[in-house]
Specification:
Bound molecules: 2-amino-2-deoxy-6-O-phosphono-alpha-D-glucopyranose
Order of helices and strands: EHEHEEHHEEHEHEHEH
Strand content: 15-25%
Structural class: alpha/beta
Helix content: 25-40%
Largest sheet: 6 strands, parallel
Shape: globular
Number of helices: 8
Number of strands: 9
Oligomer: single chain
Distance between the termini: 13 Å
């Protein structure tokens, strides 16, 4: 893992946007990129949208994919992750959301929807880049603690802590659904590159377990230690519980 620690959340978001923009600019052919939801990536999406508006970045070769979606929510529900990504990213960068890269939360058979989604990711050649956040309990996408490190896309029950953390996250959100369709940890680990952004003190414990703890299903993000090309971008608050933080200070 290549870890970079920045003085502020703003600086960390700026660096993350740079890393993603560089990957997009280097695409020689259409390639799948997975984008997360949550409060953390919004500052990155603001920057990517600004660069696209200035004409400095084209998303023409990006095949956008989402990571997860609440079970039961139709794509036009304001609390759905479909709506979140449209609002914060797709509509602003002029990307047409493609059915292949979207999970239908309201699919009659969510397990079948997860299988379809896994097949769509494979058909697109896997994720060239997977942009991730991390939950307070170490989850990535909606792979909650206890998820198999080899898991594929599937229906997953959410923990109460995640439901509480996400309550009110999405504009217009009401009660948080208790299940989600999520890409698996195994799916994520097959990405060619991974960039994870974490900011704020609430993430400090999960970040320390991800980077310096044992690889364990109890901290799903720790599985990223097994991947050869992971960039972790942090602000100081999220890095506060790292024991070897002086070794990671290089923002290169
Ligand atoms: C969400 C998503 C994750 C995200 C995490 C943290 O619900 N399923 O992909 O990384 O929870 O979100 P936030 O950035 O709001 O802390």
């Amino acid at each position: 893992m290549r870890v970079a620690i920045f003085a502020s959340a703003d600086d960390a978001a700026a660096r993350t946007a740079e890393l993603i923009a560089a990957e997009i600019a280097s695409l020689a052919a259409p390639a799948a990129i997975a984008f997360p939801t949550g409060r953390t990536p919004v500052a990155v999406y603001d920057r990517l949208a600004a660069r696209a508006a200035e004409g400095g970045l084209s998303f023409g070769r990006v095949l956008p994919f989402m990571l997860d979606e609440y079970a039961g929510l139709p794509p036009d529900h304001p609390a759905s992750f479909n709506a979140f990504l449209r609002r914060h990213l797709f509509d602003r960068i002029g990307i047409a959301a493609r059915r292949e890269g979207l999970i239908r939360g309201d699919a009659a058979d969510p397990e079948a929807e997860a299988l379809r989604y896994e097949a769509e990711i494979a058909r697109a050649g896997g994720f060239a880049l997977c942009f991730l956040g991390i939950g307070d309990n170490g989850h990535i996408a909606f792979n909650e603690p206890g998820s198999s490190l080899g898991s594929r896309s599937r229906l997953r029950r959410l923990t109460r802590t995640t439901m509480a953390a996400n309550a009110g996250e999405q504009d217009g959100a009401g009660t948080v659904p208790d299940h989600a369709v999520t890409v698996g940890i195994g799916t994520i680990l097959e990405s060619r590159k991974i960039v994870l952004l974490a900011t704020g003190a609430a993430k400090a414990d999960a970040v320390a377990r991800m980077i310096e703890g044992p690889v364990t299903a109890m901290c799903p993000a720790s599985a990223l230690q097994l991947h050869p090309r992971v960039r972790v971008v942090l602000d100081q608050a999220a890095a506060a519980r790292l024991r070897r933080s002086e070794d990671y200070a290089d923002p290169a």
